[in-house]
Structure formats: structure tokens, C-alpha cells
Write a structure and sequence with these properties.
about 500 residues; alpha/beta; Ribosomal Protein S5, domain 2; Rossmann fold; 2 domains; five-stranded parallel sheet; four-stranded mixed sheet; 21 helices; about 15% strand
Length: about 500
């Protein structure tokens, strides 16, 4: 029998074989099973008996090949039961030849849904398999993968009847229509022209964003509306994101592809494992990976544990997180746009800095939790000022909404994708620095004079130099220019160095 085992988001085809020999009755599982898989012995025994089948009173050895690959979870139950019954002569093996069988068994013989069906089915297709049998609760999710015939079962009894030619398998439920697009709209944000423009540049180029300002100024409102101006995920990205959510067990029951960029906003009390991934055995994805191809928002960023914040530094550069555990290494994609929001001090008086009760040392310690190496990876760093009564109540015209901004962002991303497609990069934020500093993309010396002076004085790092160049390309893309001008570079430097001004001033 064939099944699929997951290591991270990578699936591997597993062959389940059963040997029944004379001796004391026992069930032995081999092939590096974890605790949940060891317990399959009792689940399978109860399911077989309660499905009206005869349990073979012999020594049973179940081997999972390749034996060197760690196996975890309960997705092997149904394949183990089928292999065991076939080995006992209760079932013919031919009907399941070349079929991948997935599912967890309940003690009553019911087949329960499992996590990670989508990446499992995708792995089966990559291995050349064209037929899969999955739990009924996962059938709609499995049909998302092209090139495979999906059939479903709700019980071990139904699978046995199908193999014997007495019944048929279930068809997957029909696909559901796409839900209407909704969610927070950028039109809800009053004033904050600088914040809105920074958000648009960040969306156009896939840049990280940090906002510093008093409570109630609109930092959270802006961050929550970033996904509304991002383009929908393409097929490849949607499969990646949906697979991660399936592994984590947070995929909606409707089984649709995740088409909208995900938004993750963990509470500042979140642990290191909850943020970047972890857990016993083989690590599970955290908020960082669940935000892949979307937005990771850290509100009240200085309140997060220092170890959790520093753990973000390497994934922000590489777009992947590698979790090393005793049972093996697990790698998850983590190409996110990170948005940080922070108050200027611990007291965070909404009336403004002039009413702050914190000492200068307390303010430095508070913001010092956002270390230099972490902030150096944040492309856009701006200050959000509190709204005046005139801005809040007497706006001359309704603010521009997310649909209008999304059109400009989509056009800018299309221009960037066409420019960088030979290198395989999607957005400006992914382009390596050396590529930007070599012809034909190297900017004229007069356009980067300010950056080179800052680099020589030590107020700008080499990483910061490259990030400003990427920002300049995003600004040019939004304005429909083929390459940045000196004005674009200066504006990018202002967005990067936290001293940006209103673009319209």
C-alpha cells in the first residue's frame, strides 16, 4: 500500500508493507514511527474488529519504507489497515495497486480528516501517482491539486467493500464559489497621508515597514489594511500558502485555495515557537510561516520577547525558517512582509510626547528592544503623528479606498516582475543587492551621491544602501517610470531613515 509522509512541507511517498508470521500475537511497527504512529496499532485493531473484519491472531510486522525517513502523525492508519488485511488474505491487493491511501481511523472504523492532505496529494502527483483515496472531510481540499483523481471514504467498511467489489467510493463534494472580497478598507483611515503612501510603496515592492507613533494615531488600522491592497496570490503561491495552512490545521473546512495574502498578527505574549515555529518532535509552522506570501504584523513590537524578535532576523533575509530538532530538521517557507508598530515610550501617552512621563533612559531601553540588526532589515521606517481635529472631522474629500490603491500596486508589481523575471524574482524587495549595483540596473553616481556619503560616514550600512535602492525602484514603478531618478532615491532614503515628509507638501 502507498501513503505519503510529510517532513515540513515536503511530502515523500511511503510504502506500507505488512508481514504476518506464526508466533505470539503482536503488532510491531518499524520505519521510525513517532508516538502517534505507534498508537496506530491499537486504533487499527479496534477499527478492523468494529468494521466486521477478523483480526489475524498472528505476529504482525508493519514496515514503512523508506525506513530512514521519520514518520509522524495518524495519516498512515488507513493504509496500514488495508496492508494488514491484504497480508492476511482478507482483501485482494490488486484494486489498490498504485493508489495512495490517506486517512486516520477512529475506534469505530470511521475515517477521520487529517492535516496536510494538500501537500501530501501534491507529493503523490510529483511521484507519478494519479489516484488517491482520502477522508471525506479532506476530499474538497485534495481536488485542488491538478492531475489527480480523488475518491473519498468515510469508513474502513466502505474501503473494504470497494476492494471486494461490493460498493463504490465517494465522489468529492463540488467546489464552492469564491467568497466575495471583503475586509478592512483603506478608505476608513482618516488623514495619515504619509502612512498611506508608505503602505502603498511597501505593497508595491514587498517591503518591510515599521511605524512609530502614539496610541490611536492609526498604526494598527494601516497595518490591517495592507493585505487589501496586495494582489491575489497566483496558483503557485496559493498552493504553497494553502499547504502550510493545511499542515498547521487552520485551513477552513471549505477546502478552497487561499487566494488572498494571509495576515498574521500574533499577540505580544506569543512564544518563540508560536512565532517562528516549533514543538516536540518535528516542528510545526509558526505565525511567520503562516504569513508566507502575506503580512506578519507585530503590534506593540517592543513588548515581544527579545529572543522571539531576534529569531526573525535570519528568516527575513532568506525567506525560509529552518527548525532543528532531535528527530530531524524541518524547513518552512517564510517570505513575508513584516510590519512593526511601536509606541515611542512605555507610558505611551496619547496626548503626545510633550506629556510623556518616562525618563530618557526608560525611552531608550524601551525602543532599544528593537535592535539595530533587526531594524536594519526594515526597509521603511516612519513616524506616525497624532491626528488633529481638522484631519479627523473635516476632510475635504473621502479618502482613497483599497481598490484604487490596489490597481496601482498591481501595475507596479507587474512592471517589477517583468523586469526581474530572468532572475526569478517577483518583487523589488527580493532582488539581491549586487544585481542593483551592476549594469544595466546601476544608477548614475549623481543619483546615489547622498547614499554613498551616508555609507562613508557610517550612518548607513551596506544592507541599508541596497534596501534604499530597492525602495527607489518601487517608487519609480508606482509612478510608471522605467528606472529611478535622483528624486526617487532621495524619497526612498527619507522613507528608510525615518525622516520622511508628506509627499504632497
Amino acid at each position: 500500500m502507498l501513503c505519503v509522509g510529510l517532513v515540513g512541507v515536503e511530502g515523500h511517498l511511503i510504502e506500507v508493507e505488512a508481514d504476518l508470521s506464526p508466533g505470539l500475537p503482536a503488532v510491531v511497527l518499524t520505519g521510525l514511527p513517532d508516538t502517534a504512529l505507534h498508537e496506530a496499532r491499537d486504533r487499527v485493531r479496534a477499527a478492523v474488529v468494529n468494521s466486521g473484519q477478523t483480526w489475524p491472531n498472528r505476529r504482525i510486522t508493519v514496515n514503512l519504507l523508506p525506513a530512514t525517513l521519520p514518520k509522524h502523525g495518524s495519516a498512515f492508519d488507513l493504509a496500514i489497515a488495508a496492508a494488514l488485511l491484504a497480508g492476511a488474505g482478507e482483501l485482494p491487493a490488486a484494486p489498490l495497486e498504485g493508489v495512495v491511501v490517506l486517512g486516520e481511523l477512529g475506534l469505530d472504523g470511521a475515517v477521520r480528516p487529517i492535516r496536510g492532505v494538500l501537500p501530501m496529494v501534491a507529493a503523490a502527483v510529483r511521484a507519478g501517482m494519479t489516484r488517491v483515496i482520502v477522508p471525506l472531510g479532506n476530499a474538497r481540499e485534495a481536488t485542488v491539486v491538478p492531475g489527480v483523481t480523488v475518491r473519498a471514504v468515510d469508513s474502513l467498511h466502505r474501503l473494504v467493500a470497494y476492494v471486494r467489489g461490493e460498493d463504490r467510493l465517494l465522489d468529492p463534494p463540488p467546489a464552492l464559489p469564491e467568497p466575495p472580497v471583503g475586509g478592512p478598507d483603506l478608505a476608513d483611515v482618516a488623514g495619515q497621508e504619509l502612512g498611506r503612501y508608505a503602505l502603498e510603496v511597501a505593497a508595491a515592492g514587498g517591503h518591510h515597514l515599521a511605524m512609530l507613533g502614539p496610541p490611536g494615531a492609526g498604526k494598527t488600522m494601516l497595518a490591517e489594511r495592507l493585505p487589501s491592497v496586495l494582489p491575489p496570490l497566483d496558483d503557485a503561491s496559493a498552493l504553497e500558502v494553502t499547504a502550510l495552512h493545511s499542515i498547521a490545521g487552520v485551513l477552513p473546512h471549505d477546502g478552497r485555495l487561499v487566494r488572498r495574502p494571509p495576515f498574521q498578527a500574533p499577540h505580544h505574549s506569543a512564544s518563540l515557537a508560536a512565532l517562528v515555529g516549533g514543538g516536540s518532535g518535528l516542528a510545526r509552522p509558526g505565525a511567520l510561516s503562516l504569513a508566507h506570501r502575506g503580512v506578519l504584523f507585530l503590534d506593540e513590537a517592543p513588548e515581544f520577547a527579545n529572543a522571539a524578535l531576534q529569531a526573525l532576523r535570519q528568516p527575513l533575509e532568506s525567506g525560509r525558517v529552518l527548525l532543528a530538532r532531535a528527530r530531524g530538521n524541518t524547513e518552512y517557507p517564510a517570505r513575508v512582509q513584516m510590519v512593526l508598530a511601536a509606541n515611542p515610550c512605555p507610558c505611551a501617552n496619547p496626548a503626545g510626547d510633550q506629556f510623556c512621563e518616562c525618563t530618557a533612559l526608560a525611552r531608550r531601553r524601551y525602543l532599544g528592544k528593537l535592535s539595530g540588526p533587526l531594524l536594519d532589515r526594515i526597509d521603511i521606517q516612519i513616524r506616525i503623528q497624532p491626528l488633529s481635529a481638522a484631519q479627523l472631522m473635516t476632510a475635504s474629500a473621502p479618502a482613497e479606498g483599497s481598490p484604487e490603491v490596489a490597481v496601482r500596486v498591481a501595475a507596479a508589481r507587474s512592471a517589477a516582475a517583468a523586469r526581474w523575471s530572468p532572475g526569478g524574482w517577483r518583487v523589488n524587495a527580493e532582488v539581491p543587492g549586487p544585481q542593483l549595483r551592476r549594469p544595466p540596473f546601476r544608477l548614475a553616481a549623481r543619483d546615489t551621491a547622498v547614499l554613498r556619503a551616508g555609507l562613508d560616514r557610517g550612518v548607513l550600512s551596506a544592507r541599508g544602501f541596497d534596501r534604499i535602492l530597492r525602495l527607489a525602484w518601487s517608487i519609480a514603478d508606482l509612478d510608471g517610470r522605467d528606472r529611478p531618478t535622483g528624486t526617487d532615491v532621495d524619497e526612498a532614503a527619507q522613507l528608510r531613515m525615518g525622516e520622511a515628509h508628506d509627499r504632497n507638501s
